[in-house]
TrEMBL record:
Protein family (similarity comment): Belongs to the NrdR family.
Domain of life, per lineage: Bacteria
Region (Disordered), start-end ranges: 148-170
InterPro entries in the record: ATP-cone_dom (IPR005144), NrdR-like_N (IPR055173), RNR_NrdR-like (IPR003796)
Database matches in HAMAP family: NrdR
Cofactor note: Binds 1 zinc ion.
Gene that produces this protein: nrdR
Basic and acidic residues compositional bias, start-end: 161-170
Function: Negatively regulates transcription of bacterial ribonucleotide reductase nrd genes and operons by binding to NrdR-boxes.
Organism: Thauera linaloolentis (strain DSM 12138 / JCM 21573 / CCUG 41526 / CIP 105981 / IAM 15112 / NBRC 102519 / 47Lol)
ZnF segments: unnamed: 3-34
Protein name: Transcriptional repressor NrdR
Domain ATP-cone: 49-139
Necessary cofactors: Zn(2+)
Gene Ontology terms for molecular function: ATP binding; DNA binding; zinc ion binding
Length: 170
């Protein structure tokens, strides 16, 4: 690291500390030539991929837009802000792990639907109905059937709804 006072390229690190979250490293440095001290900070610089929209236009990834669309689908649903933030973080981590410079908007939509399906089935259906732009009621009905729990079958092949086995998850 070059000294900001005398431009000498040989500086010495006298102290290194991480912040509480572990995502920033602070280094105290000393220049042996001019004996001045200064501080540097190291942060991770991750670049999110650009988004390729359906019409071919490209735009920068927008954390706020992603979180906003999920919160809109989850409006008036019993899901905590922390759970939404964690889902957004998982989507961003997945996008970064792909290592791509550009990602189709459809891929992000699929990642959002996957997270919403885990968080809240109603929000999942809300988002999917807009995102997939259903042509008819049958497509919508199919989506609802997809998220409905299927009854377990007993030995006689009939639904086993009121046995202790089902009531207590055994």
């Amino acid at each position: 690291m070059k000294c900001p006072f005398c431009s000498d390229p040989n500086t010495q690190v006298t102290d290194t500390r991480e912040n509480e979250d572990g995502d920033v490293v602070r280094r105290r440095r000393r220049c042996p030539k001019c004996d001045k001290r200064f501080t540097t900070y190291e942060r991770i610089d991750l670049k999110m991929p650009h988004i390729v929209k359906r019409n071919g236009n490209r735009t920068e990834f927008d954390h706020g837009k992603l979180a906003g669309s999920m919160k809109l689908a989850l409006r008036k649903r019993p899901v905590t802000t922390e759970a939404v933030d964690a889902a957004v973080d998982r989507i961003e981590a997945r996008l970064l792990s792909m290592g791509e410079q550009e990602v189709p908007s459809e891929k992000i939509g699929e990642l959002v639907m996957k997270e919403l399906k885990k968080l809240d089935k109603v929000a999942y259906i809300r988002f999917a109905s807009v995102y997939r732009n259903f042509a008819d009621v049958d497509e919508f009905s199919e989506l609802i059937r997809e998220v409905q729990p299927r009854p377990r079958r007993g030995k006689a092949g009939k639904p086993n709804q009121d046995s202790e086995h089902d009531l207590f998850g055994g």
